[in-house]
Amino acid sequence: MSQKTIITAALTGVLTTRAQSPAIPYTPAEIAEEARRSVDAGASIVHIHARQPDGRPAFDVETYAQIDAKVRQRCPDVIINYSTGAIGIDRETRIHHIRALQPDMAALNMGSMNYAIYSRKHKRFYHDHVFANPFTDIQFFLEAMNEAGTRPEMECFDSGHINNAQPLIDLGILRPPYQFSLIMGVLGGIPASTKNLVQQVDRLPANAHWQVIGIGQKQWKLAAAAVSMSGNVRVGLEDNLYLPNGELAQSNGELVAKAARLVSLVGGEVASVAKAREILKLDIVS
Length: 286
Hints:
Layout: E1 7-10, H1 28-41, E2 45-48, H2 61-74, E3 79-82, H3 91-101, E4 105-109, E5 113-119, E6 124-131, H4 135-148, E7 151-156, H5 159-163, H6 165-171, E8 178-184, H7 194-202, E9 208-214, H8 219-228, E10 232-235, H9 252-265, H10 273-280
Parallel strand pairs: 1-2, 1-10, 2-3, 3-4, 4-7, 7-8, 8-9, 9-10
Antiparallel strand pairs: 5-6
Helix pairs in contact: 1-2, 1-9, 2-3, 3-4
């Protein structure tokens, strides 16, 4: 296992509230503090959704700019990855903070899907939406990221989403090295299992970096599998609120620390921010 493991911390998400976890950050200062805790624990990348002070999603450039400044104050060299995902928001609003701030990376959702949470206990669906990402929108977002000098992080919720990269490669607008996130365990997408992860990785094109994003407690088993396959991992309160022993995490940093420990136990080594930039061929922050 020669290549070091890159850990991403997904700090906020868009759905989880403080009623579910008091540790969820809302304000730019709170998000920046969670970024600092995560980097101190071993994360090289922070993935961020903006929030309003009451916890609702924020999409305005000003809020993202405040987050950007405060994260950079605390973690000058960290790789910043901003979300572009949204439901019921026009595509220019989904990308305008990328145009303005030109972050290192940004999420590029690679296909449409049913997106829901189902409760077996209550026998009902929650957050039942169609997450629409037609090719015209994917191309629009990708071209905007190219103009901003931002690396697209292709978020793939199912096998077909991986293959959706092929026409973009053929058009010459998606260029290597490719950055894939294999998201597993969302209802409407591929179920979370090591067997499915192996199949997903086998579908990736050459010259691709990848990380696994496991939703819920299965995150930890998938993370161990990914490290053993020379992949990278994402943890954080966006994806999973609980430590491996089932206790509620007190911060994103606590989740990252457990992921770093897992990497060590599997025989790997966590990449520093500088090493992650080198591996991913991202510009070095001076």
